[in-house]
Amino acid sequence: MTERVPYDEFSMFGDNAAEYAIPYDTPPVVRREKVLVSGGRSMSALVWGTGSPQVVFLHGGAQNAHTWDTVVLALGAHGHGPLSAVCVDLPGHGHSDSAAPFAEGATPLSQNADDIAMVVRALAPDARCIVGMSLGGLTSLALSHRYPDLVRRLVLVDITPGVNQDKTKQITDFVNGPATFPSFDELLARTMQFNPTRSESSLRRGILHNALQLADGSWVWRYRREDAPPLPEMRDAVERPSMNPLWDALSAWGGSGKPMMFVRGMRPQSVVTDEDETELLRRVPGARVEHVAEAGHSVQGDTPLELAALIRDFAL
Q1: From 44, 96, 110, 134, active-site residue
Q2: Distance from CA of residue 251 to its chain's centroid?
Q3: Is residue 297 annotated as a catalytic residue, yes or no?
Q4: Tens-of-pLDDT digits for all 316 residues of the chain?
Q5: Which residue out of 114, 158, 276, 302 is catalytically annotated?
Q6: Of 57, 93, 105, 301, which is the most exposed, with the fewest CB atoms less than 10 Å away?
Q7: DSSP states of 139-160
Q8: Which CATH class, in words, describes the domain spanning 13-315?
Q9: Is residue 52 among the annotated active site residues?
Q10: Comparing C-alpha atoms, which of 1, 61, 92 is closest to residue 233?
């Protein structure tokens, strides 16, 4: 008989806290909410705390809302009180339905932004800040351009519109790997191979949140591959004009006077170059830039405490 691996998505917060020495007296108040969006689809999100959410977190491609667990726990520690926040599963990720069929004149990111806008209006209309990493960062830029009233402060985590296929090759190789795995251990081994900066315990938790065990004991990722490429605008080829609206969104943000923080991982796994950073600062001269020496692309996974401290100082 195939051994089943137990999974309770709310059971591992204590493990997150213990790994990073975050004070943990009682389990946090966290619930899962669904929001209906266009086409009868639903978007899913984790809602932390009982107050009006202050921060909305958007994860990267092939990730899910739980990638932010340690960051949110850290933001509520050391006498600050539990953080009220919303961590969204992007379309085609986690517990959210797939993205809507492409409409004429739309792009994957603009449609992502439309879905996220409905989630923010329903769950966090007064949020002080949007934090977006990778695909979530590109989505947050599109959101800021299409729905400027919803984005008051913006944190971009290791992403700019200068990203391209060469910069994301390692990520693409991982995402486009085997569709199924005979066992949890084989899935864990592959994940560790592509994430050398992460602890085995954190990757084990991440897989439980991001994969499903089938009836025959094999494992598949939760995300739908067609919805989860690192570069949603570049499924077939690098099309530089497709990123122009996002560069325009950065310029518009720079002209708005609203605060922005750009957090860049400095390990080789980062997808940001010096040229990307220079261009971002040309368009948003007042942006706060933070370099995280021990982080690669997934800053929230590599150095969650440092990222939490930066977000608290910037937005809370």
Answers
A1: 134
A2: 23
A3: yes
A4: 568 999 999 999 999 999 999 999 999 999 999 999 999 999 999 999 999 999 999 999 999 999 999 999 999 987 677 899 999 999 999 999 999 887 777 788 999 999 999 999 999 999 999 999 999 999 999 999 999 999 999 999 999 999 988 898 888 888 888 989 999 999 999 999 998 878 999 999 999 999 999 999 999 999 886 665 555 444 433 344 468 889 999 999 999 999 999 999 999 999 999 999 999 999 999 999 999 999 999 999 999 999 999 999 999 9
A5: 158
A6: 105
A7: HHHHHHHH-GGG-SSEEEES--
A8: alpha beta
A9: no
A10: 61
Sheet holding 211-213, edge to edge: 180-181, 219-221, 211-213
120 vs 31: CA distance, rounded Å: 16
Domain boundaries, the chain: 13-315
134 is catalytic: yes
CA distance 39 to 158: 32
Q: Report d(CA 240, CA 4) in Å as an integer.
A: 46
Whether 64 and 93 have beta carbons less than 8 Å apart is answered as: yes
What is the DSSP code (8-state) at residue 228?
-
